[in-house]
User: Fold these one by one.
Assistant:
Number 1:
Amino acid sequence: MKNSLKQLYGIGAIIILFMVSGCQREAENVTKYTGLVVINVLDKKLYDDCHIKGSISVPFEQVIEFVRKHVDKDAEIVLYCSNYMCTTSGHAAKKIAALGYNVVVYEGGTAEWYQQGLPVEGPAKEPYLKRVIPQPEGMDTDVIHQITSQELAHKLRIA
């Protein structure tokens, strides 16, 4: 009886070791984005319709956790949404900056990028893409640095 109990404990210990080492391997395999990371914070439907070529989709509700888990602290993060009237990218950028990340906002968003004929992916059928919305005066530029389409194109090596 004692030997079978020892064997049972031994098997249990081996199983726990495999589980723990599997968890460690899983944690080690988490992709860490480095360099320039361009993130579209719109919902997946809008991202699929049209987004800046080379950007990734991380909906606003998930972006803080995504950055914490998947983006290297030394990465340069650019957040964008639909256009100047959309405030989600700026709101998320403030929270990400507070965590110590290097983050900027492209406030012109998908619409301005599309209107300027810069590279996009997707069928581009959403009506907001054709609606020209100029940059409002007095935007909150003190907290988060904003970049222009030309600056972002340069970072993406388009221009």
Number 2:
Amino acid sequence: MVRNSTGGSGTKGLARKHQVNNSGGRLRVSEDELEKYACVTKMLGNGMCEICLNDDTRLIGHIRNKFSGRQKRHNMLSVFSVVMVGLREWEKTPKNCDIMIIYDDNQVEQLRNIPNVKIEHIVQLCAVNTFKNNGSSKHDNTVVFTEEADDEEEEAQLDAGRKLPGNKEPLFNLKQTEEIDIDDI
């Protein structure tokens, strides 16, 4: 039989209908005084998160539908992500904002290279907090292996395991038996 290599009418076009162009690879920068750069500090749930602006102002960021559904994997929002938010002009004291764009690491580096964009405080905030969460914790779960054996400590631990407090009989007594050959088993 003949192989159908082209498919039906416009199959490739139909399959690509949900792909989104990211504005031709251009970097989106702030164009208005109500657009600010920020860092996500806490995920609150129900489509909201806590945002820290460049001047250490804390706001509640509302996650728009652009960042959910089919396009969620292209716009994954997580803690310590660098984002651009739009402040709401009808609020006199800003306490809510809308998340407009999520920047990845390459775009953050491009933003840092632009001279009129002040993003250093946000990048520093994100870097310090990710280091705190990943690098150092309250409990250090590292195990150090050494080849040196301290015979006195080992004997003290063995004796402590054999004797019970109050001169009572030991819980168990191990007797030495002859060696067991694995081949005999």
Number 3:
Amino acid sequence: MNNRAYFIILLFVAWSLISWHYYTCTIKGFCGAPAVTASSSKSVDAETSSSTGTVEHSDAATPCSPYITTSIRRGAENDPADVRRLETFLNAHLGTQLPVDGVYDEKDEAAVREFQTRYAADVLTPWGITQPTGYVHTTTREKINALHCAQQ
């Protein structure tokens, strides 16, 4: 084979890897999911990640599935089931009284900002930001999933 054939094969392999990564991380949201070890003190390490998309307990027989699986943002086409789970979580965890309607509105966003402020070290600092965004993206989703798993 000549250099051109090797280059074409290399491009195909690179494209395949990029496509797989995009599908796994962006579409399925499995990249950066926390691998949380729940010890007897229920400590949570949100910086440890797993490519499986599951949050694991070392003393449990089965892994805890992610509670929130998609990114959520006001004005976006959000998954209503994930938004309802988020609203339920925020009501239980922050004591808010959000309607569990599956619509991510300004009240939901304000509650997420409160959550991000409370857990800034885990959800904002890794991005190098100090102000809450109201977006439920990678680290916010990881922290919610870790806290949800620790309660089970």
